[in-house]
Write a structure and sequence with these properties.
7 helices, elongated, 2 domains
Amino acid sequence: MLLVILSLLLVAGNSANAHQTQSTAQQQYKHARDVLRFFHNHPVLAKTAVGRRAIKHHTWLLHFAERRLAPLYPPHHSLWVCIASFEGSWSDTSPPYTGGLQMHPNWYGVVNAGYLTQAQQEWAAEKAWRASGYSYSFLYGQWFEWDNADGCYS
């Protein structure tokens, strides 16, 4: 029980630091996962007041660490950057096509891509491509008709 209380104090102190590195987030993720596994394997201790607080706290910490470890850019980041090199600037707001991937107004829910960050534009393109089932014809229909941008996807 004392070990659980000490670990709670240690983790609470670490989570207060707003400038944590990714390695710290990875350590917190592993620690929270281990604590939750411990209480899963010791249900009698999990039913105590300290156990319930530890489970609640480490569940929150696990979700917090997962969000910190989530990637900023989508899995096909290099593809979107390559396509954008044949298109406009990431901050292009002049119609009819806007943003680095030259999206038209209301393109899969994007009103004006020029007002979005590069990562937001890439995630919008990633979601649309995923919705198509990662279809090559989707890519060719959207971007690869011009220049020799089809060299982006190999």
